[in-house]
Each structure stands twice: as structure tokens, then as C-alpha cells.
Design brief:
The protein is of the alpha+beta class. It is built from twelve helices and 14 strands. The strands form four sheets. A five-stranded antiparallel sheet has the order 4-3-7-6-5. It has a five-stranded mixed sheet with strand order 9-11-12-14-13. Helix 1 runs antiparallel to helix 2, helix 1 crosses helix 3 and helix 10 packs antiparallel against helix 12.
Length: 419
């Protein structure tokens, strides 16, 4: 066999072995790892024990380009970065995911030109020295923060006199770590929100059982505070349960047709006592007639209630709820828009991207004094996700805030509204 053909066959074998080793690491399959090792030792014109094997048959020679193509296809379809290097840390092969992650990665160039991570380079030397696989970490900061688990393993190559190459497999852990961080933050925030009113209740109970046992005035005052704290815990638990229910059904889009205009007017009337108590005017600006949208009535009631209540509590002296039909959507389909605007102090721009996070508050003290749980806009966001709708928040310091909700209209011929 010609030297070039033999080299191509060995390259294909090495690439396929790297691919199979990567897959083996993914699911812990010993069979795949053994297959990879067998493939690495089976190249055409290869060697066993460092001695050259004779060519086996013409059909095997003909199969070499096909094997090479299959190996390259296998490597290309692994979604995580895989890199094959030699003992000098020169890049032999890399799949598209690796090239996308490391734009400076080039074949027949040292890996260190594209990947300046001492923990990985030291790990390669360790693997070459011991022959044992190891795991290490790698993180990028630009253009975005990403975290990887890097698995490094030796790949014996008989055509090189038994000298091993090295396979690097980078598993992206970014999403998993973000989800774990969100879970930890959620548990910590929920625990904190519940612990504060519970501590108040326990303190007042101990006081009523002790020094204030016979103090009628103190008892009445303490009981009122205890009632407020208990209501705060009730609101928090209700919001947590609502958010959990919405998330469970977030993938199921509603099919019922409801009148968003009727829902908006109903919630304006429901918030009238709170608005009057705070000296805030609430007005509806909308043409007569129905505003049909695809949605679940109770969930949309909660959405509109949250938006109007936030505007009344944290806005200025005037809140305007407006509706518009047949607004052009992103996909060219008609949508109905509901906007809640206030003339309050506005929200600093650095807070806007985080307003829909669980327990996020612009002003923690003010929110708690107003009875907020920090979950209202998170509920709104997840409800709109389920309804295939959109939420946008626009604010300017000193000029108020406008929150816009867009929901898809029902298909033609299905304009009849529900309850």
C-alpha cells in the first residue's frame, strides 16, 4: 500500500477512535471504549507489537477512503468539542464544535496556540506520562461565560511505534451549572422570605405568653402584626404554588378564546379600592368591542392583576390601561396588545433585564412594605410563555414605566369568547 494511503487509513482510524472514545465517555459504555481501542489497532498496513503487518486484500484498500469518510462524519456529528493531538501537543484532528469554540485552532499547529489553559496542558503531559485518563475544568469568559469538563485520554497508535496520541473531549456544563445556581438561589430566597415572618410570629407568640400576657393593648397590637406576617407567608406560598403549576403546563398552549378587554376592565374595577386608598387614578383606553385572544381566563386575570397592582403600588398618580387589536406579530400573525403605563419615577435601566427573575426587586424594603413577594413578574413571564405571548418593559427615569403584553389572536372563524 502507498504511504499516503496508509497514512489516510491511520488518520481515519484515529479519528473514529477519538469519536468512539468521546461517546464512550458520555454514556460510560465499556463496549464503545473497547471498540475505539480495537479500531485504533486495526488500521490498514498497521502494526502489532511495533511490527508492520502486510496488506490484507485489495478490497480492504478500497475500503480505506470509505472508513475515513465514516470516521469524519462520526466526529462531525458529536455536538461537543473533540480534539486529537499527538505527543508534541500538535493538533491532528478536530471536529466542527471544537473549531467553533476555539477559532484559532489549526491542524498541524500546537494546541497551545489556540488553548492557553495550563490545567489542560499540564493534564496532557500527565496522561502521556502515566497513560491514565483524567478530568479537569476549563472556562471561557468571552464572548460569553461558559464552563467545560475536559476529559483527557491516551489513544495508542500502532503506526507510531506504540507512541500514543491524546484525545480531548470537552463537555459543556454551562446550562447545568446555571440551572443548579438558579435552584440554589431559589431555595435560599424562598427560605429567607419565609424565615423572616416566621421569626416575627415566634417572637410575638413568646412575648404574648410572657411579659405581655395581661397587657390588652400590647396583645391587640401584636396580634395585628402577627396577622400581617401570616398573610405575607400565605401570599408567598400562593405565588410559589401558582408559579409551580404554570411551569408544569408551560409546554401546553391554551386553545380557549377569551376577551382580553373584558379581563382588563374587570381587573381595573377590582383594583379601584386600592387605587383610591393610594390616591391613584386608573383609566382604560380602548375602543368598544371584544379583544379576543387565545388564553386561559384565570391565568390572564392574574397577569393583568399583577401588572395593574404593580403600577398602582410603585407608579405615580395616574395609571392607564390601553388595548390595541391586530398588532403585527413577529411572524406576521395578528396579536392583541395590552399596555399598562404609569407616570411614576421610572426604573433604572440596569434593573430592567432582571425584573422577571424570581424574588428580584428594585427596592427590597419598599416591596416588602407594599406586601410584594418578588414573584409577580416571574408569574407573568411564565404565563405568557405558556400563552405564546410576549412581555416588554420600557421605563425612563422621571417619566414612568410602560409594560406591554402581546398575545396571539385566535384563527379566523374562532372569535367566539369564553367566560
Amino acid at each position: 500500500m502507498a504511504e499516503g494511503a496508509r497514512r489516510a487509513a491511520w488518520t481515519g482510524a484515529g479519528v473514529a477512535a477519538a469519536s468512539l472514545l468521546a461517546v464512550a465517555w458520555l454514556d460510560g459504555s465499556l463496549d464503545l471504549a473497547l471498540t475505539a481501542a480495537a479500531l485504533a489497532a486495526a488500521g490498514l498496513g498497521g502494526s502489532i507489537g511495533g511490527r508492520h503487518r502486510p496488506p490484507v486484500a485489495a478490497r480492504t484498500e478500497a475500503a480505506s477512503p470509505a472508513r475515513h469518510a465514516i470516521a469524519e462524519a462520526l466526529l462531525a456529528n458529536i455536538p461537543d468539542p473533540v480534539i486529537l493531538i499527538d505527543r508534541r501537543s500538535v493538533v491532528l484532528e478536530a471536529n466542527p464544535a471544537a473549531r467553533a469554540l476555539l477559532p484559532n485552532l489549526k491542524l498541524r499547529h500546537p494546541l497551545s496556540f489556540a488553548l492557553r489553559a495550563p490545567e489542560i496542558l499540564d493534564g496532557i503531559e500527565e496522561v502521556l506520562r502515566t497513560g491514565l485518563p483524567l478530568k479537569t475544568g476549563y472556562a471561557t469568559r468571552v464572548p460569553t461565560e461558559r464552563s467545560f469538563e475536559v476529559q483527557i485520554g491516551a489513544l495508542p497508535m500502532p503506526q507510531a511505534g506504540g507512541q500514543p496520541n491524546v484525545v480531548l473531549f470537552l463537555r459543556d456544563l454551562t446550562s447545568a451549572q446555571r440551572l443548579e445556581a438558579m435552584r440554589v438561589d431559589f431555595v435560599a430566597n424562598a427560605s429567607h422570605e419565609l424565615r423572616t415572618p416566621l421569626a416575627s410570629l415566634l417572637g410575638f407568640i413568646e412575648t404574648l405568653q410572657g411579659p405581655a400576657r395581661n397587657d390588652v393593648a400590647a396583645r391587640e397590637r401584636f396580634l395585628a402584626i402577627m396577622r400581617t406576617q401570616a398573610q405575607r407567608m400565605t401570599r408567598l406560598i400562593d405565588d410559589l404554588l401558582s408559579l409551580s403549576r404554570i411551569e408544569l403546563r408551560e409546554h401546553v398552549a391554551p386553545t380557549e378564546t377569551v376577551d382580553l378587554g373584558q379581563i382588563a376592565r374587570q381587573m381595573v374595577d377590582a383594583q379601584a379600592p386600592l387605587a383610591a386608598e393610594r390616591g391613584v387614578g386608573v383609566a382604560v383606553q380602548a375602543e368598544e368591542g371584544a379583544y379576543p385572544v387565545l388564553g386561559e381566563r384565570d391565568e390572564l386575570l392574574r397577569v393583568v392583576e399583577n401588572l395593574i397592582e404593580n403600577a398602582v403600588k410603585y407608579g405615580g398618580t395616574q395609571v392607564t390601561v390601553s388595548l390595541a387589536r391586530a398588532v403585527q406579530g413577529r411572524l406576521g400573525e395578528p396579536e392583541t396588545e395590552l399596555a399598562v403605563a404609569d407616570d411614576g419615577p421610572g426604573i433604572p435601566p440596569e434593573h430592567l433585564p432582571r425584573l422577571t427573575e424570581r424574588f428580584y426587586r428594585v427596592d427590597v424594603t419598599s416591596s416588602r412594605q407594599q406586601g410584594g413577594t418578588g414573584l409577580g413578574l416571574a408569574i407573568v413571564k411564565h404565563t405568557l410563555n405558556r400563552h405564546r405571548g410576549r412581555l416588554t418593559i420600557e421605563s425612563e427615569i422621571g417619566r414612568g414605566t410602560v409594560v406591554r403584553v402581546r398575545l396571539p389572536e385566535p384563527p379566523p372563524g374562532e372569535t367566539g369568547t369564553g367566560r
